[in-house]
Design goal:
CATH architecture: 3-Layer(aba) Sandwich
Number of strands: 4
CATH superfamily: Glutaredoxin
Structural class: alpha+beta
Bound molecules: glutathione
Helix content: 25-40%
CATH class: Alpha Beta
Number of helices: 3
Oligomer: single chain
CATH topology: Glutaredoxin
Order of helices and strands: EHEHEEH
Number of domains: 1
Largest sheet: 4 strands, mixed
Distance between the termini: 7 Å
Length: 93
Amino acid sequence: MTKVRLHRCSYTFLHVDADACSRLQKALDEQGVDYEVVKHGFGKSQRSRAEVVRLSGQKYLPVLELADGTVYREETDDMVTKLTTGQLPGPTS
Ligand SMILES: N[C@@H](CCC(=O)N[C@@H](CS)C(=O)NCC(=O)O)C(=O)O
């Protein structure tokens, strides 16, 4: 098992709920999950998000890599709901 990895956009100075990555990061903090941040540029193209596409099959962030290596991406509000209700598809520690 490894630490959870939060793949998020590089706009880490945005702490507003309009920002999807910030919403999930805030929820991880509130749940006390130990995670590391992996930043990706705010690219709009498939090419500039090649690493995200390779990992998750699509280009949007945030993406979570859970402690068992499971890669998880859905609409952010669904990710937050599953995190807070213990329904993530893998462990957080
Ligand atoms: N509706 C999506 C929006 C996700 C989203 O827009 N994420 C931003 C980063 S915070 C992104 O990846 N933007 C890249 C783009 O719009 O091409 C969600 O709630 O997950």
